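Bench log, entry 3. Co-assembly request; chain sequences pasted below exactly as received.
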Amino acid sequence: MSHDHHHAPVASRYDLAPERSDIGLIRPDRFTGLRDWLTTVDHKKIGVLYGAFAMFFFLVGGVEALAIRTQLARPENDFVTARMYNQLFTMHGTTMIFLGVMPLSAAFFNFLVPLQIGARDVAFPRLNAFSLWTFVFGAFILNASWLFEFAHLAGWFKSFDWYNALVYRDFAPANGWFSYAPLSGTFGQADAALRAPRFTGVGTDFWIIGIQILGIASLAASFNFICTILNMRAKGMTMMRLPAFTWMTLVTSFLIILAFPAITVALIQLMFDRQFGANFFNPTAGGQPILWQHLFWIFGHPEVYILVLPAMGIVSEVLPTFAGKSLYGYPIVVFSGAVIGFLGFAVWSHHMFTTGLGPVPTAAFSLLTMAIAVPTGVKIFNWLGTIWGGRVRFTPPMVLSLGFIWMFMCGGFSGIMHAAAPADAQQQDSYFVIAHFHYVLLGGVLLGLMSGLYFWFPKIFGRMPKASVAYWASGLVILGFNLAFGPMHYLGLAGQPRRTHTYHAGFGWETWNFVATIGAFILGIGVFIAFANLVWTVFRGEKCASDPWDGRTLEWSLPSPVPEYNFARSPVIVCRDAFFVHKHGPHRIAYEQDGGEAGVHMPSQSWMPLLASCGFLLAGLGMPMSAMGVPHVGWVVIAGLGVLFIGIWLWALEGPGGYMLKTPVSPVSSAPAPAEASSAR
Amino acid sequence: MLSRFFARVGLLVLPVIALLTAGCSEADLKVRQSTFDHKGPVARLQYEVFMDSVYLVTVLFAVVGGLLVYAVIRFRARPGDENKPAIVEDGHGNPLTEILLIVASIGALVFLAIPTLKGIWYTDDVPEELVPAARLSAWYPRAEGGVENYAEAVKDQVLEVDVVGKQWWFRFEYPQLGLTNEGRRSVPNELVIPRGVPVRINLRSEDVIHSFWIPKVAGKVDLMPGRRNHMWIQADEAGHYYGQCAEFCGDSHAYMLFRVEVVEPAEFTRWVSAQKKDAAEPVAGSRAAEGKALFAAKTCAMCHNVGGHFGAGAFGPDLTHVASRKSLAGAWLDNRDPAAQQAAVAAAGGNTEASAPVDHAVQKANLIKWIGSSGVLHGDGEATRDVKPGNRMHYYKMFNVAGLNETRTQLTAAELDALAEYLLTLK
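Structure output for the full assembly:
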């Protein structure tokens, strides 16, 4: 490494003398409290922040879902208006996918990957902080649309000229998470100001810029994890010894960097259509609305696997732990994950069977979609094989993982039904589809992520969540979920279309919609209890041992909470499930002679990632406001881009810094508490 | 104890749901838009492919789910395990097992792939074997009483209907039979087709994407702006069917419904002739005549065509025969008496295609509700609690006609009544 270290190794970063970066600013390494969290580059803290924000947005998306279900509880209900309903389901889908599941997966990537591969941090710690804050600001911009919508409904804008000049006064997005053009785009010829007529107002602009910024966060994080996993593995941690979760992180990261460019391009085209009168998707000017669908789904379908593969990785860690048996068919589980990722790019048009593709493409995508059931089935068989012959211990994470397998399997079965294109002609855009993807994404992914939360929480905070509460929550979640979404299979086949804010009595949909609403509230209560139990545990939970589950992978060899340098000495691995074999089998984990008094190299904290992300915040808020016609706000956009540029520039110029931190020499889990615990100010 | 209890409850929920669903009565499978109650070859094929997939996944579910339940119960931890070696042997998988499972999975999917492929081609366009009997010349007299019904050039064609989607209603045109919007005689929201005859449907959109779905007759195909999609349908039982837009198309997507009247071929030809007739002149001095004057004065005629009275309107639904229709406002408002309709369905043994006739009192109330709530009161493009929020009845701004703003004043109750009386004469 080229940078020099001015200081001798210290026992704690609070002992560091103030150090100036290459641009002369004092590095924020010695901060505590809020300023520490804002400038942190520690992958564990970043993971915790990702998790906290994700859980918050899960609750936001959940409240939106309950509003949707309340509206649908009885026919011709008027709990919300049509417009508000459309905004609710748009924001519900967008929030759950981009602000709930993806960041919660990212929380696990961040916290676990370096620990599982025996590394001290990710490859690019400051880039990691940048991903986090960019995600947070992207999420804020998306939800800021609600603030504008509420201000509009409350009439606070009535005295503004720009408001009175607006043709469309919808401020929260109302196009669905898929935002099909031309509903989201333009229609007709652009005027002299390069604005073409459109169907929706600035809600769509909020959505476009919000998703664009979230995509940047995801891309940056993915490059980081790919580099980390490929380059920072401990000695002996060969690719085929990687824990299954780390493998799924790698596959997911590749999916993100290959899938997001498609949506990035599509969003830019849509933005150009709306802001500058381009005609990519404008059918009256020779544009092709179908192009949006292809671009969206060639991102959108891999996105499904981006959501589900991390949860599969979690389940592949939880099951072996509580079956007391190594993952059955590890190579084929890993390989099938990669095949799912690969085939995930070849099935996008099954979202478009009803768009008039013609028989040959429909047949091709039908067969490919059936083909993707094979590697998915392989995973389920191998999880079954993992349990087979094991000694299954029931714990909250195990119950949730078993729930994952059941719900995901059911979602997979209805997925096979959609793959048969003629059957799909009846199911497409009906409640049957809603049932299908909620079984996959809620029954599957959410249960998997909750399983992961309950599994690794003792490692993250050193405290054990209350099992009895966790069981009650899991029971309510599984019961409520099935009650909410099971009947939707019937509703869809009984002809109820999705994305409709109301329905007539007399179509036979009343009873099961009411049951679904009751189920949704039970589910909501269950998720709330599950999350509240975790939050309570952070502050009041019972302290627990560093390896409470008899864990198998390297993170369980570390103290809980994990010290900031992770490994006092770098481990050397000779087999899969290294820590389990270390405890019970023939091979011990060896350790390199690094660390100790000579110290380990720690990256310096920095304000620059946060500063650069603030540029996105300004530009991202400014663009929709500019589209509203708020005067002078175009300058805010330019200022935001300036802040972004300056942030990245100073980031480059400040130099990576770093300091040497002493570590206790005994590296195993029974090691004494980290030195800084006693010397912290 | 608690853990086992919840583990088992969790695993039992699904079969319980499955049983509940299986316990539904037959009537639940015959509701208005049920895909189970197929009434034509396309929907029947789609149902059969669906049932193939149901058989397949039921077997898979029983096998995999059964093994999972067995494994979780059989291999649960027991007292005394702690004395056994911690490392369980043979944990790394068996290549033969894996290969067998993959081959079995592929075999299972081939079972579904074959009917799927057959179905894709069958549902794409009117099958060759059905074409001879479906030709117009095979069932539709070319001329009656010296009046040509359709041109010689189209006599060997299958009946075609152009379906045009707009926010938020459907327009139906029969170009071979001279019922077109260009010719100022199209049919909004109530598609009429002959029983037992394949009909080719051409799908067009004039704004955003919509989707055409009559669950009992055929699965959906989208109406893509700028593209020319098609499908074919055939209904084998006469009756009144329910359809709905299935692609999210904006504020009032939920209100974009339509109806299909399936009638005997002979009645269909009579219906076409009746559609071509112009509206009769209302009795001079009547409320209806007053309404006719208002129809022009309040600019209704700018968008709505009334054959024989007003010929300028091409944008909104054709109202020449509005009083003959069983629904209004994109089929959201039903013009039949609810009790009479229930009785009709009950008399037909629960067949939801049975229909009561139009109830003119209900129809008039609907007309007043619909016109009175639309745009005249809310002129600023806002979503409101209208019958159909955002509907174009108040979308006068897009025409940019000088002075139009001033003419759009609120209609009085008397004016609404007169307009409704006029529209009721348009049989």
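The longest strand of chain B covers residues 160-166. The longest helix of chain B spans residues 41-74.
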